[in-house]
Design brief:
With about 210 residues, this protein is α+β, with helices and mostly antiparallel strands. About 35% of the residues lie in helices and about 30% in strands. β5 and β6 form a beta hairpin.
């Protein structure tokens, strides 16, 4: 529903709201440049009428340096189970100044070019969170004492054995490990194929 209205000087007024914007607001750089999909007035309905715009947090001055604040703001930060090091934001665009990127009505095609490159990175984020969960689970299973092993005490000097000796706990941990190792193999395979598609000298290989 985000719309773009021409300003008459080659720029556009961008109005609307976007959700689940990774790193939409932070203080790690002098400026934040947003890629925003919006529909120019009079554009065709559906995905064929969506254009892509560059919308900076700070407008550039005559020297190309960040200057006046653009009308872009973070409305809220999403609550997430993980990846807390990256703020996921609701972004509000209130007539913000934007510049068309690429062809008019070609925004979705351009955005998917970027998104395809990002898929591997997002997959690796999920794999990383899963691996940390597995390692923490193994550590906890070695420390938590409850019950005795079916084959006899494994820690006779303690009131109970660590739960990692129990078959069902071991099955759960091995299932987690199997998923992680399969995910790691898939990520490496995908990265290799991506490199071949981009860098191979032979057109047939690409």
């Amino acid at each position: 529903r985000t719309k773009a209205v021409p300003n008459g000087d080659g720029t556009y007024r961008i109005s609307g709201q976007k959700i689940f914007i990774s790193a939409g607001e932070h203080d790690m750089s002098d400026n934040i440049v947003h890629l925003v999909l919006a529909r120019i007035e009079g554009a065709p309905e559906g995905v064929k009428g969506i254009s892509l715009f560059i919308v900076p947090k700070l407008k550039l001055d005559a020297s190309g340096n960040p200057g006046e604040k653009n009308t872009v703001s973070c409305g809220s930060i999403e609550e997430k189970m993980g990846i807390h090091g990256n703020s996921t934001c609701v972004m509000n665009y209130d007539g913000a100044q934007g510049t068309l990127l690429g062809e008019t009505n070609g925004g979705l095609r351009a955005m998917f070019t970027m998104m395809n490159e990002a898929r591997l990175g997002v997959g690796l984020q999920g794999l990383s969170v899963s691996e940390v969960a597995y390692q923490n689970a193994v550590s906890y299973a070695k420390d938590r004492l409850q019950g005795r092993s079916l084959s006899g005490p494994k820690a006779p000097d303690k009131k109970a054995d660590p739960i990692i000796v129990h078959p069902d706990i071991r099955r759960s941990l091995m299932t987690m490990k199997a998923f992680n190792e399969a995910g790691r193999a898939l990520a490496l395979w995908t990265a290799i194929k991506s490199d071949i598609a981009d860098r191979a000298s032979d057109d047939k290989d690409r």
